[in-house]
Specification:
Rossmann fold, single chain, oxidoreductase, binds NADP nicotinamide-adenine-dinucleotide phosphate, NAD(P)-bd_dom_sf, SDR_fam, YciK family oxidoreductase, 7 strands, Sc_DH/Rdtase_CS, alpha/beta
């Protein structure tokens, strides 16, 4: 019988991602930080994109200390970045690396959890800007480079509230539905190519965002970011070639 969940059983080794160049957004903290370090340990060259430079520098140094390939830091605040910033980013990546094998869209903000009518327009706009619009502009800028690379993989980060709307999860929930939709449109447009687009749902994971959403919860009851990495490496590795348009869960319900 075939394994229905090969991503959960995936075993990461030090060459799972060798010779790959992977961009990780929100690489300074939480799941993005762990993903950047794990991808580097699996042999990839990592472009660390994030807002807080000293967090990115720490991840950069940690990766170097482990003896992995030197990562590159790309400081960018997704809230204020414009189309021309992303075009500049794409030119820098093209000039420096000449290829891009993977993108992990991980950076997000939660916004305030409250009744819909109490969401401030400015908060709604910020959540949509960081969680959705930036992804649109980054994908647009990077598609020409991704198309030139054999077996490139783009992974977006979703949530259970991006599949089923939940009271009080407001703009965040809407942004994750939009993320699932963006992934599906791109996957369908590229169904005859080797470029693949999927979503990852981390499930409840011990990070600052989870603590903000569930302040009364004991974080020790949650999976850590390290625990959920098999799905992340699986989607970035060539093992998942041909997998596209899917939304994968990192944890069993
Ligand atoms: N943790 C969970 O239980 C859970 C469950 C389902 C889905 N997710 C999703 O998983 C992903 C990672 O979440 P997490 O729990 O690791 O969250 P987190 O700990 O809050 O980390 C979020 C990351 O996004 C970055 N970021 C936020 N605003 C940014 C901006 N304007 N520009 C650039 N980077 C920005 C942060 O950078 P700074 O630290 O510099 O602000 C940080 O690196 C998110 O997409 C989240 O929606 C998480």
């Amino acid at each position: 019988m075939t394994n229905q969940y090969p991503h959960l059983a995936f075993e990461i080794h030090e060459q799972s991602l060798s010779n790959k160049v992977i961009l990780v957004t929100g690489a300074g903290d939480g799941i993005g930080r762990t993903a950047a370090i794990t991808f580097a340990q699996a042999g990839a060259e990592i472009i660390l994109l994030g807002k807080t430079v000293n967090k990115l520098e720490k991840v950069h140094d940690e990766i170097l200390e482990m003896g992995c390939k030197q990562p590159c830091i790309l400081p960018l605040d997704l809230r204020g970045a414009t189309e021309s910033d992303y075009e500049g980013m794409a030119s820098t990546i093209t000039g420096q690396f000449k290829r891009l094998d993977g993108v992990l869209f991980n950076a997000s903000v939660l916004g305030n959890l409250c009744p819909f009518e109490q969401i401030k327009a400015s908060e709604y706009e910020e959540v949509m800007q960081v969680n959705v619009n930036s992804q649109f502009l980054i994908v647009k800028a990077l598609l020409p480079l991704l198309r030139q690379t054999a077996l490139a993989s783009v992974a977006f980060t979703t949530s259970s509230v991006g599949r089923s709307g939940r009271a009080f999860w407001g703009a965040y929930s809407v942004s994750k539905f939009a993320t699932e939709g963006m992934m599906q449109v791109l996957a369908d447009e590229h169904k005859n190519s080797t470029l693949r687009f999927n979503c990852i749902n981390p499930g409840a994971t011990r990070t600052n965002m989870r603590a903000k959403a569930f302040p009364a919860e004991d974080p020790k009851t949650l999976k850590t970011a390290d625990d959920i990495m098999p799905t992340y490496v699986y989607l970035m590795s060539d093992i998942s070639r041909g997998i596209t348009g899917q939304s994968l869960d990192c944890q069993f319900k």
